[in-house]
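User: These chains co-purify. Model them together.
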Amino acid sequence: MSNHRIRYRRLTLYCGIAAAFVLVAAPLYLLVKYSISDPDSINTGGAPIPLWPYSPTLRTFAYLFSDSEFYGVVLNSLCIALATVMLSLSLGVPASYVLGRYRLPGRKIFTLGLISIRLFPDISSVIPVTEFFIRLGAQNTYWGIILAHTLLALPYVIFIGISAFESIPNDLEEQATVMGASRAQAFVRILLPLAGPGLVAAAIYAFLLSWDEFIFAYFLLGLGRISTLTLYLNQKMSFAPPQNILATISVCLSIPVVLFAVLLQKYMTAGITSGSVK
Amino acid sequence: MADVILKNITKHHGDCRVIDNLSLDIRGGEFVTLLGPSGCGKTTLLRMVAGLTSVEQGELWIGGALYNDIPAQRRRIAMVFQSYALFPHMSVKDNVLFGLRIRKAPPHEMFDKLSWVMPLLGLEGLESRLPKEISGGQRQRAALARALVLDPEVLLLDEPLSNLDAALREMAMEELKRIHQQVGKTILYVTHNQAEAMSMSQRIAVMKAGRIEHFDTPRVVYDHPHTVFTAQFIGSPVINMLEGEIERGDGVIGAKTGLGFFVLDRDRGAQAGAMIGRRVRVGIRPQNVLFAPHSAARRASDTRIEVTAELVETLGDRSLVIARADDGTMIRFMITRDESIPAGTRVAALVDGRRIHLFEPATGINVFAGDKQ
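Assistant: Joint model of the two components:
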C-alpha cells in the first residue's frame, strides 16, 4: 500500500473520530453552557444565541442549592443508589463467586438467561413489577424502590462478578488451601482482593443505574412523598421553568457519572493479576 | 521428616484411569522424584498427597497416619505449584507469611521464620516487592520460601523449574539440593525433565500411564532400567533400541543383532543361557559406543561394529553421530570434539557389551529384571 493511501485512510479515520466526538459532546456542551448562562444569553430577544454566555454565572447553581427540596431529592437519590449498591453486591458477589468458580451444570444457560432478562425494555417490565409491588405494599417506600433498582442492577453485577472471579487462576485458591486457609479465608484474603477491581466496576455500575433511573421511580414513587433527582427534574419540566434551571439539574445529575467514569477507567484496567502466574 | 506411603492407589478422571493400582514407599527425609511424560498421572499423585484431589481407592499414609480423608488445609504439607501461585496483591513478605498468619502464629515466630528463610533463599531486600516486580528466579525462590516457613512434614514441588531458563534452572537445582540437605524435609518432586530428576533425587519413580515403571536410585534406574520405557526416558541422548536374538557363540552367550553379536558379561550370560533363541530388544546407550577408528576390541566384551555416518550433530564439547549399518540398522553414538567424522564416511566403533540392556519384545520388561531392581 502506498504512503499516500495510508495517509488518506488515516485522515478519514480522524474525521470519523472527530464527528463522533462532536455528536456526543455537543449536547453536553449545551447543557453546561445553559447551566452557567445569564438570562441575557438565553432570552436574546431575537438575536442569535451566543456559543458562550455573555457573562457566565453560577447563580443558577446557587439558586438550586438554596432550595431545601433539591437537597432532599439529592439525598434521596444518593441513599437509594447506595442501598442498591449494597444490596446488589451482597446478593451478586456470592452468586458470581459460585458461578465463576464452580463448573455447575446449567451455569451457562443461567448466565445467559440472566442477561436476556435485561434485554427487555424497562417499560414492559415496570407494569407487572408495579402491580406486584403495590400488592406487597412496596409502592411509595424506600425499600420498594431499592428492591426494584436491585432487580435492575443485579444481572449486571453478577455478570461482571463472574468474569472477575473467573479470571483468578485456580492455583491461587488451591495454594491458599494447602497453606491451611479455609474456603472462607481463601475467599476473603485472596479471591475478594483480586476480584476487587471488577467488583468496584460492578458497584459503580449499580450506583449509576439507580442514580439516573426514571421509569421505575416514576411508577413506584410518582404519587408519593418520596422523590428522586430524576423525578424532581421531571416535575420541574412540567412547570416550564427557564432552561438554565433544567440544565443545572441535569449537570448535577451527571456529576457522579463523570466522576465514576474516571474511576471506572482506572479499575477496568485490571492488570493486577499479572505476575502471579507465568 | 514424615514418610509417605501410597498403597494400591487408583484414580479415574471420568472413564480415564489416571492412577492404576499404584504403590510407593517414600522414606522420611527422602528426595523422591516422580518422573514421566505429561499425562502420566504424576501431578495427580502429587495433588492427592496435597489433598487437592481425593483418593478414590487405596490408602495414603503420611507419618504413620491415614490421610485419605484429611482435608488439604489440615495437612502439614506445603506445595510449590508450577505457576508458583504467588498472591499477586501481596508483597513477597506477605506471601511468605501467609500460612503463618492463617495459623495465627505469634509475631516473634513470624519474625524468626522470616529472618531464617529470606537469607536462605537470597530474598533479602525483596520483602516489600510485589510478585510482578521480581524476576522469574526470584519468584520461584519466593514460592519455595513460602512453603518452607510452614515447616511442612512433606514438601511437594510440581515442576518448579520448568519456567526458568537453562542457566537459572541449573542454579536452582543446586540450590534445591542444598536446601534439602539443610532442612532435611521429605520432598516429592514432579518433573518430566530427566536431567533434573537424575541430578537432584535420591530415588526416582519413573511413571507411565498411571503406573510406576521403575522406582530406584538414579544410578540403578540409569544402569539397570526395568523397562524399555525407563531406558528411553532416562539418559540423553536417547538409548538405541535394536531388534535381536539371544544366541550362543564361541563359548559365550550374547545378543545377535543387525550390528553384530554382542557378548554379555559372565553373570548375565549365565542367566541368558536359559533363554537361547529368544527374541529380545537390545538397548545400547550412545555413551557406551566408543568411536574407535584404529583399535581392535580391547576387552572380551567389546564388539567391533562398522557403520556409515549419516548425520553429525554438535552438542558442545561432544557430537552425536547418527549412523547406519549395512542391513539398515540405525545407531547413535558420541564422539569428542577432537574427533571428526564427515557425513558419509565408513567408521568403526566398539560397543561395550557389559552395558547393553535386553528387554522382552512384547512386555518391554528387562529380561534380567529379577536380579537388579
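The two ends of chain A are 39 Å apart (CA to CA).
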